[in-house]
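[Archive record]
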Amino acid sequence: MYVLIAGGGKVGANVTRTLLRQGHEVTIVEQRSDRFRVLEEEFDYRVQRGDATELHVLERAGIGRPPDLLLAVTGDDEDNIVICEIAQKRYFVPKVIARVNDPRNQAHFDLLGVAPTVCATSSIMALIEHEVPESDIIRLLQLREDELEIVEVPIGADSPSSGKRVEQLKMPEGTRLISVAREGRSEIATGSTKLEPGDRVLAILQPGCEDELRKVLLKR
């Protein structure tokens, strides 16, 4: 597999090392001269210097082949969007992955159809929410291309769903229970599955259905 990486910071360099160990072909593009020299000492000819938002730099790096995968992992969200847009619409790169530095910019990536994206801040916040018992609905995964998300819901003793079977719940349209975790073990949620206090339920739902799901599972 040939991978073109835009951005030679810690993320880009670490991904390059990993891919090379796995036997893949990699070219990494870095704009800063000091960083380029460091990368060149380690990766030799696999490093190209330049601004990856410029066509001639991307072409020199081999985007015209095209690569099987392009990673835009610079520290600038606008650059990452532009790089992915160029790769997809001008060079028909089949797969791109973009880094989102500021989660407030995620909407711009979504609007332009740049996906999938990786945001360290959002991932850390999801882990924090998972470890905070006071949280009600915890977002675990967003499937943006399918307009779905997977959430975790803790069932308390005062939850209206506690003591009920799944088939007794009036689940809102656009939602479905996936599994139930209890005492360290998980099982697929079926109609006969009975929810108990302390359960952690996984659900898949369409965006905007959280409030309705909360009413069914959490609020009396």
